[in-house]
Model the fold of this input.
Amino acid sequence: MSSLTLAELAEIISARTEDIHGDAGTTVTCAVPFDQAGPGAVTFADNARLCSRVKDSRAGAVIVPRSFSGPASANLILSDNPRLAFARIMQYFYPQTPCFSGISQKAVIGVDFVAGRDTAVAPLAFIGNNVTLGERVVIHPNVFIGDGVCIGDDTHILANVSILENCVLGSRVIVGAASVIGADGFGYTPDEQGQHVKIPQTGIVQIDDDVELGASNTIDRATFGRTWIRQGVKTDNHVHIAHNVTIGEHTIIVALVGIAGSTKVGRNVIIAGQAGIGGHLTIGDKAVIGPQAGVARDVAPGKTVSGTPEMPHSQWLRVQQALGRLPEMKRQVTAMQRRLESLEKAMAGNEAEDNN
Done:
């Protein structure tokens, strides 16, 4: 079992020696949630509820905000971002290691295959012709890699993934199980008889460095050019990205999102679960698309939208508040309408009497 002193933990998270409050020589062997932390564990507290309980913690060390001022029974490490620091420590204690190494004789590999140092290819993987893999690439069982694919260093392709011909993946990419990269985009045009004629999809998918795709993602190849997933993008499970879409750097896409063709999504955008985004739109940098939103218009940089059709989030909140009152409002409007009709009849009667 791996172990680290608090001084070594501080190095991993780029903390200073003076950020350790307690015994820097204390050893921990695991990183666990706050409620499970014992003497050999490191944990973190990043909100008022957990920070109020640090005084009772049995943990070997607790990572806390720099603003923490309460009593503590555990050793402390001060951090600007305790959750981020804890994530980096977890990466040390729980590294991703494949259960196989080398290139299996049970894999099917085409001609002109190039593999970098320490590449691992599992049994039952299929790799086509003219494929290039970088160093320390890991290909899990039942993966299909088409002709002409190029994959960068330290990339992991999990089980049952299909990466179709000529697609390009960068370094440190993770492709979740059962994802399909480079299937044909959904492109058809009607003929004179109203039948749908397929438009050949001749482009590729390009995925840049440090992208992580969840399970069962489908990213379609471009009609021409590329569908482009730029550096640092993270997607949840069951995400569909259509042909010629560009996703900007460090954007987050949550589960069950669908993005139609040729839409451009900016940098550091957040797209919440089950949102649908129409085609040929522009989503500005740092925009936020709310859950189940239906986006049919461009979204300006930094804006937060919700609802279907999308609207500013503050307006959507007012709409939601009003929805629950609609039955009572309908009754009030109906009553007012009846009163108005009665008044109009009375006034009409009075006018008739005056005319007589």
The first strand starts at residue 4 and ends at 5.
